[in-house]
Amino acid sequence: MHNTATESDLAVRLTDVTFVYPGSEEPVLKGASLAIERGSFTAIIGGNGCGKSTLCKLFNGLIPHYYVGDFSGEVEICGQPANTQNVAELSRMVGYVYQDFDNQLVRPTVLDEAMFAPLNYGLPDYRVMGLQALEMCGLTHLQDRYIWELSGGQKHLLALAGALSLSPDILVVDEPVSQLDPQHARQVYEVLRSLNEHYGKTVIVIEHHTEFIADYCKEVCLMENGQVLWQLPVADGLNRLDDLARLSIQPPEVTQAAVHLSSLLRKENGAASHDQQDWPEDADGRGLSSPPESAKCMPGLHPDNAPRLGQDEVRYPVTTDEAVAYFSGMLGGRADLPGAHSSSEASGGHSRPGSRLTESGPEDAQARPIVEFKQARLSYRTIRRAEREVLRGINLSLYEGERIALVGNNGAGKSSLLRLIAGIAKPSAGAVEVMGEDTKHQSIEQLSSHVSYVFQNPEDMFIEDNVYKEVAHCLKSRAYPDAEQRISQMLESFRLESLKDRDARLLSGGQQRRVSLAIGAAVLPHLILLDEPTANLDLATREELLGTLQDLEGFVRTVVIATHDMQLVQQWATRVIVLTDGTVAGDGSAADIFADHHLISRAGLAPTQIMDTASRLDLHLTGSTPAEFAQLVHAILTGKEVPHHAACPQLA
After folding, report:
1. Domain span(s) for CATH 3.40.50.300 in the chain
2. How far is residue 417's CA from residue 427's CA, in Å, rounded to a whole number?
3. Cα separation of 372 and 362, whole Å?
4. Which of 61, 125, 462, 546 is most exposed, with minimal Cβ within 10 Å?
5. Which burial class, exposed, middle or buried, applies to 426 when counting CB atoms under 10 A from its CB (0-12, 13-18, 19+)?
6. Which fold has domain 369-602?
């Protein structure tokens, strides 16, 4: 890989690194080489299992000093050979925030946590260093708060502060936004940008969300099969559509829209070849979010449609600002008409805050609730002896056959509501009934025959020493007669056969997620609860999850997913429940919820790139996909549609 920086300019240099985890015969890294300059803001992308997290564990010495597998190659950090320094020494140069950042928080209060590392090193100015780290992350005002009082976004920022307290030159953050609502996710990235631009930190992120990469990063490295395939400026890297498509990495929405439009215009001009593939659509007329297996390409991103880097000067937009300039230039003032209407006008005036289903639930009057909340409240007493109410008088009925998405900002009460259903928590007041039985009178073991709970952090579900035993544990401990058949089915459905002898704790984040889903699905429960199931998953694995959920519909009566993934909500959910501050703020179809701009703002959600672009161009986009945006712009350009105005807000 070509890099003109001198050795003194490099924060990280890897040369021909190969690594095999203990117990595995296949290398995770296969001659990987990489050079990252000081002061860079670099994203590392690739499919689950390609070696991203393993690569980054070289930077702080966890490999090979902690994970003692078969290692070869050279690693230099800030010009110094990593093999001559231990993890403690390297941690002074490299701060690391892991996917499961909650596990990094080990002290009771915010300031205790921020100054823990320098105190542990015996540094005399540990308190000053902790306060400086809190200031860098915007947490000074919370220094006396207890950790468990923080929101998810605040905890993530505190993990950042803890990593920064030793003043490292390099900061590595593994999946910064995977467990955060859009507002908190952007807050974390704004802090990372400040650390990079104002404090000169070299920031390296492992990221699946290309919109954040486009908005914040300077360069992007693509990994495939344990190697760094290329390292490019962000705009160039996110335009390598063939490579992204092959690895099922979704480009930014505006990039997809531009490619769709390019394809439509080429067809209009007769430039498309006769054998060019048209991408299939689902029953709702939307472009599929992933291609058929035979295509191995993103929707509308057929290689023939995209200008190739190095062959011409065309670059598709990757940010909203670029997209506005790109599409407005093409429209040539056609969309420059009076200002946009409100979202309620765009939806015909039918949007209403907190729109709810009827009391009878589904249209089928004979359907019976599988779960009922009756004025259910959940509270706990803090260490300061104050009563904190997490859920406040919830009234809900969940019905057989529903696919329910539970959305809201971090701290809204989503996980708490799932824990009430599973019996992990009991209501402080009111009642929760599952299959007609009050959960107060049932043990977790009794409820688990009906309800499977898949935790947000996969490692919380691991108790055995390999994947096969993890999936088999419940089935064999309860002597299911078809245990072996079910184990094989789960290993195959979640692509775990090749990993069955590996320790689940040593797998990548996406692989761990697949193991946790297999554990939860193995007993074929009546009701399955999934807490952020798509966090840390690449597109291919995410689509596989959706396919598996569909396969389970014949066995699982009801599925409830707490999620920040609004693409999942759109594709999968038949009902959306919005929680804010421990109350139900909205309950209805996805279309009703998405049309309520005030509600999604209160819920900590945000417009997607496409809807933001449409709004800024004063285009009335009734759909929400890149393909629908491209079709609207194409219709305007070809005179088949007069531009209407108003943007219908959509979730991100």
Report:
1. 7-246, 369-602
2. 10
3. 14
4. 125
5. middle
6. Rossmann fold (3.40.50)
